[in-house]
């Protein structure tokens, strides 16, 4: 090839590249082939999609609302399933139709009423109050045939004067440009505002800005022509949208920084005196250890602002080893051990919260059977420490309980916790049926801070060997520990189970005062409204109305770390809080005792036989073939009336009594030491002799106790 031809080819290539770029820009800047408009506003017109090779640009909403084009392809074919040939055919069809708004050709959106001949471009339809419904079969309606909203509220109620989305003023008159929520009737908004909200939130997050209703709100907005894209919210689709949350504050705010590398330096390894410690309350202030005179073990430093806001006690409030409660002008400090993150049985988890023994003893004096009154006096003392052992003394024992509570300190404590458990669930703090209690709202209890005290007493009851609670409703447990269950209230059941609109209205009329207080008083036009009412009532009853009692009750349960432990393992503790105690079985009782065998082989052989007698004896007690019950065996062996929530401590054990003459089967009876939870079984050669001596000893022990 000659040099002249090469130069000519280079010149042509340089000239052709700008022309190709110009053509590409012309395709990208071209207007929609259906509406002939170049505007690119995805919230109002849908995404503007361009096929570069076919030189085709179209708005997505123009495609959905056009009368003569249908989605006949797959999602990856053409433009989101609309084939190129179908789009061009629709362009040719609409080129003969005139828009009644701009008077230009290309109108592709028509009123769905057959007798109506109005045709518009999709953007022009917005100017003429056209409503397009973005559900199958995507109909559009002119201003004369478009759906509308009705006021349906009490004329005496004042209407909002501002948009609940943009907060600008609006005229509270329902029209094409002003819409309202069908549920609360208090949320009014501009059409363009709610359309942009729907485009941003997507199908999964689009709901009313005031009442948070989702299902009914979305159905009404679709009926009134609001396009809701079937995708996640726009803020969830951004890459690294929450990356800033992973950054921690690393800056020394001390008045005089001593670090040579500057305030932004934080040393983790090596010279840790210049490690930045963040405020344990706000996390938005920091200091080097050296700059504020902190030790290497200090982890609960609080900045000056937080210390001032908490009256100088900020470092104590969030200490990992102490919880400080300030009330009635006195400080009550609860120390607690470090919690284990390993999951296990509820008994093991509660035992891990066992108090660290201190020399001090918390003395409790109970007058008669007034256990709750004595417990409240205990936790309201200025010097009360939850880690001190409880020493219970009953006055007027003849009217209270068994005489063993006078001689046995452990029996007195167990009986006190049992009475306390019964009286707490019958107190004014709780309401509802037996076995499914919810927190009750009592003004006097709030003033007396009774919710905190009861939470503290229940925590002590669980850790110190009291019975399982077993009376929380699933709804209360859900609100406390975020373990999902359903709520059951009489009013909620009546509303949800209403079989006719008249029955539903009758229930609402009977409870109109409570509904008005809850902000749920509204006109009911259909039976389907009952579910929205149930959701609103649940939100009010268990969240809004009970926010302060729940907060104080949680803080009381934090005693000895009970609340945190249950919050870490809510499914493990659910049975302890919400279900009645399981009846005692032979298998359960047999697994409680660990067997201590002798080392001598001759004795070991006889003890192995007695162990089989023991297990068979428990089975006969369970089925009623013995004169004693499993509860009698438990009481004789351990002194406990029932199994505590934290299990028996120390762990029960079984050992054996050997007769000097191995052939003798009489003269030996079982012996028990309830204080050490130990049971000594007699060595016999036959099961009949074993059963006889066990029944005699246990019956004698039971008959000594009062009925």
TrEMBL record:
Stretches assigned to the HECT domain: 631-707
Pfam families xrefs: PHD_G2E3 (PF26054), zf-HC5HC2H (PF13771)
Pathway it works in: Protein modification; protein ubiquitination
Species per Swiss-Prot/TrEMBL record: Oryzias latipes
Entry GO MF terms: ubiquitin-protein transferase activity; zinc ion binding
SUPFAM superfamilies: FYVE/PHD zinc finger, Hect, E3 ligase catalytic domain
Intracellular or extracellular location(s): Nucleus
Name assigned to this protein: G2/M-phase specific E3 ubiquitin protein ligase
Domain PHD-type, chain residue ranges per copy: 29-146
Coiled-coil stretches noted in the UniProt entry, renumbered to this chain: none
Keywords: Metal-binding, Nucleus, Transferase, Ubl conjugation pathway, Zinc, Zinc-finger
């Amino acid at each position: 090839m000659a040099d002249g031809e090469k130069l000519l080819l280079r010149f042509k290539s340089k000239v052709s590249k700008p022309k190709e770029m110009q053509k590409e820009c012309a395709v990208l800047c071209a207007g929609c082939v259906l509406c002939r408009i170049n505007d690119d506003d995805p919230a109002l017109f849908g995404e503007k999609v361009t096929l570069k090779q076919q030189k085709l640009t179209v708005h997505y909403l123009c495609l959905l609302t056009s009368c003569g084009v249908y989605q006949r392809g797959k999602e990856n074919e053409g433009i989101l399933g609309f084939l190129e040939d179908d789009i061009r055919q629709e362009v040719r069809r609409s080129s003969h139709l005139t828009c009644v708004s701009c008077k230009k050709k290309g109108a592709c959106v028509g009123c769905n009423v057959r007798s109506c001949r109005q045709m518009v471009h999709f953007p022009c339809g917005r100017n003429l109050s056209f409503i397009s419904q973005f559900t199958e079969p995507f109909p559009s309606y002119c201003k004369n045939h478009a759906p509308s909203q009705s006021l349906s509220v009490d004329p005496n109620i004042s209407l909002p004067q501002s948009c609940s989305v943009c907060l600008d003023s609006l005229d509270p008159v329902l029209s094409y440009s002003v819409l309202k929520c069908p549920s609360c009737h208090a949320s009014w908004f501009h059409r363009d505002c709610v359309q942009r909200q729907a485009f941003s939130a997507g199908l999964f997050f689009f709901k009313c800005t005031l009442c948070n209703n989702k299902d009914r709100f979305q159905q009404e907005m679709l009926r009134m022509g609001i396009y809701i894209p079937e995708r996640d919210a726009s803020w969830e689709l951004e890459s690294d949208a929450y990356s800033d949350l992973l950054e921690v504050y690393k800056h020394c705010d001390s008045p005089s920084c001593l670090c040579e590398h500057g305030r932004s330096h934080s040393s983790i390894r090596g010279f840790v005196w210049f490690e930045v410690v963040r405020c344990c309350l706000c996390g938005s202030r920091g200091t080097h250890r050296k700059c504020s005179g902190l030790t290497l073990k200090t982890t609960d430093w609080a900045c000056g602002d937080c210390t001032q806001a908490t009256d100088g006690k900020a470092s104590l409030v969030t200490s990992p080893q102490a919880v400080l409660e300030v009330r009635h002008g006195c400080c009550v400090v609860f120390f607690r051990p470090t919690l284990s993150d390993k999951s296990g049985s509820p008994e093991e988890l509660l035992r891990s919260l066992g108090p660290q023994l201190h020399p001090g003893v918390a003395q409790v004096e109970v007058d008669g059977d007034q256990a709750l009154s004595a417990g409240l006096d205990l936790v309201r003392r200025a010097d009360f420490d939850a880690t001190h052992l409880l020493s219970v003394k009953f006055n007027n024992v003849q009217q209270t309980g068994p005489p063993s509570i006078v001689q046995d300190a452990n029996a007195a404590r167990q009986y006190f916790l049992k009475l306390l458990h019964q009286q707490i669930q019958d107190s004014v703090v709780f309401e509802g049926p037996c076995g499914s209690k919810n927190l009750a709202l009592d003004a006097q209890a709030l003033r007396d801070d009774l919710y905190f005290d009861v939470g503290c007493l229940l925590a002590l009851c669980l850790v110190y060997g009291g019975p399982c609670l077993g009376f929380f409703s699933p709804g209360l447990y859900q609100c406390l520990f975020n373990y999902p269950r359903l709520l059951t209230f009489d009013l909620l059941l009546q509303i949800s189970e209403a079989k006719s609109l008249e029955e539903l209205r009758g229930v609402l009329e009977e409870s109109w005062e409570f509904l008005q207080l809850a902000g749920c008083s509204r006109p009911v036009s259909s039976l389907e409204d009952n579910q929205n009412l149930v959701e609103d009532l649940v939100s009010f009853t268990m969240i809004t109305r009970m926010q302060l009692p729940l907060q104080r009750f949680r803080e009381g349960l934090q005693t000895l770390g009970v609340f945190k432990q249950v919050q870490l393992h809510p499914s493990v503790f659910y049975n302890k809080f919400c279900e009645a105690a399981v009846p005692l079985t032979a298998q359960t009782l047999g697994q409680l005792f660990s067997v201590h065998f002798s080392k001598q082989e001759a004795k070991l052989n006889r003890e192995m036989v007695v162990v089989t007698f023991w297990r068979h004896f428990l089975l006969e007690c369970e089925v009623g073939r013995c004169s004693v019950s499993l509860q009698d065996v438990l009481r004789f062996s351990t002194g406990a009336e029932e199994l505590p929530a934290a299990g028996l401590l120390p762990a029960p054990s079984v050992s054996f009594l050997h007769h000097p003459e191995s052939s003798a089967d009489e003269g030996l009876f079982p012996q028990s030491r309830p204080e050490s939870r130990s049971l000594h079984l007699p060595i016999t050669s036959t099961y009949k002799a074993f059963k006889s001596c066990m029944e005699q000893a246990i019956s004698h022990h039971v008959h000594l106790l009062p009925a």
